[in-house]
Amino acid sequence: MPESSPNVPRPETARVGVAAVTITDFRNYASARLTGGEARIVALTGPNGAGKTNLLEAISLMTPGRGLRRAAYEELTRKGASDGALWAVAADVSRDGELTRIGTGLAPPGETGSRAIRINGANAPGADALLEHLRILWLTPAMDGLFTGPPSERRRFIDRLVLTVDATHGRRAREFDRLLSQRNRLLDEGGAAGWLDAVEAELAARAVAVAFARREVAALLSQRIAALGAAPDAFPAASVRLAGPFEMLADGSAATAETAYRGMLARERGRDRAAGRTLDGPHRSDLDVRFAGKDMPAALSSTGEQKALLIGIILAHADLVAAMARMTPILLLDEVAAHLDPDRRAALFARIDALGAQAFMTGTDAALFEGLPAGAARFVVADGMITVGAA
């Protein structure tokens, strides 16, 4: 990663923001438009159930995947919408002042894929095309148990972090999952050794590629966190690394790791056939996060410390994305400010402002956003309606 002062966009880094977003028949919105313009921080306040998180979810669909709630696309259409209605989200994305119109929504019956994506009116070849225009990170209350929850959630988390840095990671991970399922099916059906040899050769190559991409981003992120953690008002510094048997196997060169994993797959066919699944690989790895200042696992830290560590990771990663992807990311921070004391809340606003990234933040109380920097935009959300809030 090129050297630069942390938390400051590089001259060659494009400033990206969502200037406006329009949603139709989405969740509790029949039709609504949010215009943040050039604001770097957009605060959304309103009571629980008003639709604040739904707005963030709509924006999160401007990236590959199923958004911050991971809901099935068919579940997003507004209840009570007319028969045949399809939810839709459209955004004007600004990149150094130049607008790109991006739209996505539930695909009409008969079209390939479960959702349609259009960029400047033309059909996109796939969701990965969205990453050419913007990168999105989010932090939601559902992620509060990340450090104490199952490893699968942490793998999903690190894969999302890798994707925002490396646009090819999604395709790589999908290919690994496809080959893994193919091997499991061949084992279950008693597939010929020759077929298994061929699948395992491809699987080993994809497994090592996934593992090495995760490892590289984890290392870069730890370095970034350490640099940012020097500031007096910083959130606690975390160290992050990949852990698990496969990570030890893949501790050498890519070629050596690929050969070793391929040999393991061949040796353990009987065991895996009995288990009904492949027991070794990056699909079993874990993300090890530690409170660096205390040299303690994040899972053993207090609830407040875990929240602060997670915020620090997201902020540091946003800075890493700006450096690596050459564009500032979009941050979606759902109910984050409510869990911080006034000093840490002020530190959060200052860090976001210094990043140069655009952040959409939600909260039930407008007082949470009294310390926002100049130029922030405020909106009130109520019953699926969006109005401009008081400055």
Give the tally of structural domains.
2
CATH class of the largest domain: Alpha Beta
Give helix and strand order, one letter per element, not per position.
EEEHEEEEEHHHEHHHEEHEHEEE
Provide the CATH superfamily of the largest domain. P-loop containing nucleotide triphosphate hydrolases
Shape: globular
Based on the structure given, which CATH architecture of the largest domain is correct?
A: 3-Layer(aba) Sandwich
Helix content: 25-40%
Q: What's the story with the biggest beta sheet?
A: 6 strands, antiparallel
Radius of gyration: 22 Å
Q: Overall pLDDT, averaged?
A: 92
Uncertain stretches: 1-10
Count of helices? 9
Task: Characterise this structure.
The N terminus is likely disordered. The protein folds into 2 domains: 211 residues, Rossmann fold (3-Layer(aba) Sandwich), CATH 3.40.50.300; 153 residues, Glutathione S-transferase Yfyf (Class Pi), Chain A, domain 2, CATH 1.20.1050. It has 391 residues and is an alpha/beta fold. Helix 3 packs antiparallel against helix 4. Strand 6 and strand 7 form a beta hairpin. The longest helix is centred in the middle third of the chain and has 36 residues. It is built from 9 helices and 15 strands.
Condensed summary:
The chain is an alpha/beta fold and 391 residues long. It has nine helices and 15 strands.
Notable traits:
single chain, alpha/beta, Rossmann fold, Glutathione S-transferase Yfyf (Class Pi), Chain A, domain 2, 6-stranded antiparallel β-sheet, 37% helix, globular, disordered N terminus
